Amino acid sequence: MEASPAEIYSYFDENTNAACYIVKDPSSGSCAVIDSILDFDLSAGKITTKHADMIISEIQSMGLSLEWIIETHVHADHLSAAPYLASELGGKIAIGSNIDAVQKVFGKIFNAGTEFQMDGSQFDRLFEDGDEFHIGDLAVQVMHTPGHTPACVTYVVGDAAFIGDTLFMPDFGTARADFPGGSATELYNSIVKILSLPEETRLFLCHDYKAPGRDCFAWETTVKVQKESNVHIGGKKTKEEFVEFRVKRDSQLSMPKLIIPSIQTNMRAGNLPEPEDNGTQYLKIPINKL
User: Fold this and answer.
1) Torsional sign, CA 228, 230, 235, 240
2) Is the residue at 141 inside a domain?
3) Which of 4, 46, 92, 223 is the residue whose CA sits 20 to 30 A from 137?
4) How many angstroms separate the CA atoms of 208 and 167, rounded?
């Protein structure tokens, strides 16, 4: 008997322009959360759990069992709520196996010290390219799609693919590739890989910034629509044309507002650095390093 398709519930956070997803297996009641969000007030240095508590409430109200808390990449624009969700509901925290490349780059930038392990061991599972895992009875295929960061991963569940920041809505284009470890060439190759999926595949994005002329936020599109109308990659743009465009555009972009707290936290699987001798946790600001 053919398996029932995944049930997908989307939750957009306008404070971070980020989308979080609950992926439910209808046959077992198991679920996964993809790209969870922790609320962070930068000016006050204050963390709260409003968005994560809403996700917890949704999971509990549907009577679901949380099996996986999955990251598409080490986010530079919001903090992950993965450890909080795991402490409240259980579930394994997972990311792509190239996380060690991100940790090695940013571990040095933030001078994280010898106690910071740069091998991905903070996560419960590291997915290799081509891996398959299950949410209940739902099979999930793992595709490494680096470029925005070395550890970017796409998760394919039936006719749905969760692609992180690799692509935005067609009217907004594609991810930047200028973070340490990023590559416009690798980004192009990863986009080609994603757009090689069946045209009817639904693509679920990690962010939306509401392109000029569009009145509402959106975070779901399809392979077919991206091929036809993505303003950065559509219309059979060559690799050389894309890389030249992407490098020039990235040189004009400012850093995300929350990159400093986000990277330090997310490279640790959503955990803040260990408390210092006064019991307080601190985040560092590297000067002229980003």
Assistant:
1) negative
2) yes
3) 223
4) 10
Straight-line distance from the first to the last Cα atom of the chain, in angstroms, rounded to the nearest whole number: 52
Tell which residue, 154, 165, 150, has the closest CA to residue 100. Answer: 150
| 278 occurs within a structural domain | no
pLDDT tens digit at each of 290 positions of the chain: 455 689 999 999 999 999 999 999 999 999 999 999 999 999 999 999 999 999 999 999 999 999 999 999 999 999 999 999 999 999 999 999 999 999 999 999 999 988 899 999 999 999 999 999 999 999 999 999 999 999 999 999 999 999 999 999 999 999 999 999 999 999 999 999 999 999 999 999 999 999 999 999 999 999 999 999 999 997 778 999 999 999 999 999 999 999 999 999 999 999 999 999 999 999 999 999 88
CATH number where 186 lies: 3.60.15.10
As a whole number of angstroms, the distance between CA 286 and CA 290 comes to 8
Token pair of 91 as six digits: 């579930």
Q: Which residue has the tokens 């850093």?
A: 255
Say if CB 19 and CB 206 are below 8 A apart. yes
Read off the tokens for 135: 């949410």
Alpha-carbon dihedral sign for residues 5, 6, 7, 11: negative
* Total count of domains within the chain: 1
Report whether 72 contacts 194 (CB < 8 A): no
